[in-house]
Amino acid sequence: MGMKAKAHHHHYNANGGGGGGGNGSESSSSTSPSPPPSPRRHSTVPHCRRKLRTKPISIVFSFLLLRRFLRLLVVLPLLYVSGLLMCVGPFSGLVGHTPLPGSVYRSHEMFQLLWPHIQADNSTPIELSSVWRFRRKLKEQKPCPPSASGLQLDSPGLTGYLIVEVNGGLNQQRSAICNAVALAGLLNAVLVIPRFEFHNVWRDTSTFTDIYDEDHFIATLEGHVKVVKELPEMLMDKFDHNISNIPTLRVQAWAPVRYYTGEVYPVLQKQGVIRIAPFANRLAMNVPPPIQHLRCLTNYEALKFSSPISNLANKLVERMTEMSSRTSGKYVAVHLRFEEDMVAFSCCLYDGGEAENVAMNSIRQKGWGDKFKRKGRVTLPGLNRIDGKCPLTPLEVGMMLRGMGFDNSTSIYLASGKIYWAEKHLAPLLKLFPYLHTKESLATPDELAPFEGYSSRLAALDYTVCLFSEFFVTTQGGNFPHFLMGHRRFSYGGHAKTIIPDKRKLVVLLQNMSISWKDFKLEMEAMLTESDRKGKIIPRVKKFTRKSSVYTYPLPECSCLQKHNNTQIVPSAHS
């Protein structure tokens, strides 16, 4: 009954038309070299006879070349994969090859070797308040652009109602909400409070109102985009009070402005209401400045956590600050992605032996079926590790931070789900940093009870505590750290104040059994300096050429909303 848009018949590139991600990721392809041509033969056949035989000979010759080329295309990749399997796979030990640097998890052995030296280290720890040395000169603040309603359209009035269904975890939903507001402004439409889809991975039944302050959201956007809680009764009657009867558009990822104005707008005008499902990453990053401003306004002012979340989140920030009195109230927040499902999905090997391998295979089968057993799929745990794709363990994070100069008096907040084999993996981290805290340790069971079973609400608590930390440490990527880094850049004068480990370099160092603690520290200090340098980077944005995410790099477009006279944000203002 639903009406399909033409979107699924079109494909777009990342810079004007979709298909590519908004974070500027690139794809690459490799081609095998063509075989050299065969040497030319000198024929004794008379010229007149050669003329008659030229065509069939050339066809046969071309066919032979094609066969040889196809064989190479098949054989060369097989040889390459075989070599990798020998070097980084399970056969490396059998054939006597030395594993490639960084391909094997030996961090636990490294810790045992270096622990006496770590304990004996009496060098002066870093001052938490003086680590971030790179500063960005703040430019003169420009006024925010005027209302963007109907910017690209001829219609002077509202064109209809926009319904979107958002999916994913907390920050994927947040991204979709910001994009929905921007799209409503582009189409001059009335936005209905976004609907949250239930997903088997997150298993969270929360609605918009459970996560965000709905009234604040509507009031903040007034004058920019009209937002309503529900469709008018008249429209609901038209579609028999069944939302699935409303024309549903399936839009290609990262669709550009011209698609919405050319394809979606006419449907909205005709029907008076449209529904876009799903609505994750359905609007290109390259949009006019007034539309981009709507994203900024939504992300940093309109989206305020609901009272139950913000009240407890603020308490956790206050308690974490009190627990950090040894360092003037400053603490380090670590986003640790070492949950069971993340370890399984990464296909990486740690130190659990065959029992771990069996357990991870079982989890993969349960969560993703035969995805990892499909024909032609090759899993190379060693190569994944070399490429920086393996989640860092609590031990690896702890050694990195101690190497950077954080001593055992530093307070650490761990933002994470249920850690895989927590008792084993958290033990060395607690040795390195005894002042380790989580939302479970800071809140009482009664305070956390209303949040149990709601992953997005729990993530909102972690998000707030991480936002107000002096240091944020990201270990695995994803929407959570990307949004946080952007929020911190917006709030701290353009600096993300984030430690981003060079995992490709780190895994090599953590496999080097001959490295001294002194040399390891030098490498970690250089990594911290590099994080400081990268923390202040602002991408160059000229007109509609933005490739990076405005949620990770909010400047310069969002700068008109910054309060430069108060770069130290306070919890009550943003949570």
Structure report:
- It is a single chain.
- Helix content is 45%, strand content 6%.
- It is α/β, with parallel strands linked by helices and 575 residues long.
- It folds into two domains: 109-121 and 307-564, no CATH class; 156-301, 3-Layer(aba) Sandwich (Rossmann fold).
- Strands 1, 2, 3, 4, 5 and 6 form a six-stranded parallel sheet that branches. It has a five-stranded parallel sheet with strand order 9-8-7-10-11.
- The chain is globular.
- The two termini are 41 Å apart.
- Residues 1-12, 39-48 have a biased composition (Basic residues).
Topology:
Blueprint: H1 47-88, H2 92-95, H3 107-120, E1 161-166, H4 170-187, E2 190-192, E3 195-196, H5 208-211, H6 214-221, E4 227-228, H7 233-238, E5 248-249, H8 257-271, E6 273-276, H9 289-302, H10 307-323, E7 332-335, H11 340-346, H12 353-368, H13 381-386, H14 394-404, E8 412-415, H15 422-432, E9 436-437, H16 439-442, H17 445-448, H18 455-467, E10 471-474, H19 479-491, E11 498-499, H20 503-509, H21 517-535, H22 571-574
Parallel strand pairs: 1-2, 1-3, 1-6, 2-4, 5-6, 7-8, 7-10, 8-9, 10-11
Helix pairs in contact: 3-14, 4-9, 6-9, 10-18, 11-12, 14-15, 14-21
Count of folded domains: 2
Average the pLDDT over all residues and give the rounded result.
84
The best one-word shape is globular
What is the helix fraction of residues, given as a range? 40-55%
Termini Cα gap:
41 Å
What value does the Rg take, in angstroms? 28 Å
Strand content: 5-15%
- The class by helix and strand makeup works out as alpha/beta
Query: How many beta-strand runs?
Result: 11
* Main sheet makeup: 6 strands, parallel
Number of helices: 22
Outline the low-pLDDT stretches: 1-55, 81-95, 565-570
Transmembrane segments: 69-91
Keywords: Carbohydrate metabolism, Fucose metabolism, Glycosyltransferase, Membrane, Transferase, Transmembrane, Transmembrane helix
Family: Belongs to the glycosyltransferase GT106 family.
GO biological process, one term: fucose metabolic process
